[in-house]
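tool_call: predict_structure(chain=1)
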Amino acid sequence: MVASTFTMNGKRFVIVPEAEFRRLKESMRGKTSGDEYGLPALPEKLPNGNYPAVEYARAVTARDIIRARRALGLSQKELAQQAGVRVEVLNRIERAKMNASPKVMGKLDAVLDQSM
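tool_result:
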């Protein structure tokens, strides 16, 4: 496969042959929608039918941040810089590995409110 790259308005794009694009698109069919791609999974329900609260809250928060960041067309690095938080912290939050402090959430929210 031959692919080309170019940059437009500060964003980098990859051009692939249409047949390769269709193959890639087909390989994703049924796995997840384009909007859901790369989002952390929600935890499995417990035997009593409830979700584990902390893990569920982390996953939902992560998914919301990722969707809002994508809507603004920002990378993790760009969002972290604009919000004044370390990219490593944002990465852990988006992977649902840690809870964001109220201070960090406030900083992220200030930047992400632009998407609403």
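agent: The CA atoms of residues 57 and 101 lie 13 Å apart. Proceeding to next step.
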